[in-house]
């Protein structure tokens, strides 16, 4: 769910890469699916702790608010990595950055396996975020280039579908796998990390065997952090897209931080497998909605996303109030689908309005603000939960998100009128 200036190079023709001519097309086809599988694995690892947070709470005795702090630390890691390292694969190569990102996640897995305590959990989540920030943009760019080298002149539809499914779908796979392992096998705070850690090790080896798609420049550019700017010709449209990203990722942040506690506490269903399954279906709905609406215009997709997310979030609050698991899950599916459509429309709008030379800069701004939403609103919900009931806190979350969605609609209308 993040991107940097690495995508600028991904939008070029793979045929322009001298490295691309050193391999047969079949190698690029195999490489495409290899990187897709690695992408899924890495994103799944980032959400493995989701259904396990109640177990950490019971083990260390910390509050729901602390869970949101742990999640916010992860988001901070992603933001820092996105700004400092998300774009360097443009000149050092995709494979090196992907391997470094996977190794960071392996370090995090070792930390998770070492001691299941709050301080270690915080450090492990920060390291995970650093790896994810490096990986998402690089993997997306690498998939685009491998696809173009395998099918030169072909439609980008396969790349768009697979990259979306790998990113959003991978986030849903992690809780499902962790929940099932924690529910039905022993060592629930260690086994999920060991299983996914082995998959990450395989991923490192797989990346090493995949063709590189970037030719190193004769002179390495002077390093600088990724620049961020809102000046891209359509200020109102850009602000509308950024607000849409903020609001849509807030829903994903809710489901990857606090929902397992809601399901086990407020809704009285403590099953770790069930908690993981709920998160999986919400992210699955987001990925499916992004794929199924691929032919819609950005405006139509945005409007559908606004409506679906608004209805889903409102009903989600109702589901918590009446303590209905069925209502909660159905509302989560609708909200997830809406958030997926809204986020995809935001990315498409920003990519279209920005000049090619500044597209990475524009997208970096979108993703930075979106990840703030991913962390800030769930943390706010955790703070509210210290002073009011769970249902009351969820009501405030819904009100804030609905207000944001209304603002997005107004800003989008103003942008069209200008």
Automatic annotation (TrEMBL):
Keyword Iron belongs to the record: no
InterPro entries noted in UniProt: MFS, MFS_dom, MFS_trans_sf, MFS_Transporters
Signal peptide: none
Location, primary (coarse class): membrane
Record domain Major facilitator superfamily (MFS) profile: where: 30-416
Localization of this protein: Cell membrane
UniProt keywords, alphabetically: Cell membrane, Membrane, Transmembrane, Transmembrane helix, Transport
Stored Gene3D superfamilies: MFS general substrate transporter like domains (1.20.1250.20)
TM annotation in the entry: 30-50, 62-85, 97-116, 122-143, 164-185, 191-210, 236-259, 271-292, 304-323, 329-355, 362-381, 393-412
Mode of membrane association: Multi-pass membrane protein
Protein name in UniProt: MFS transporter
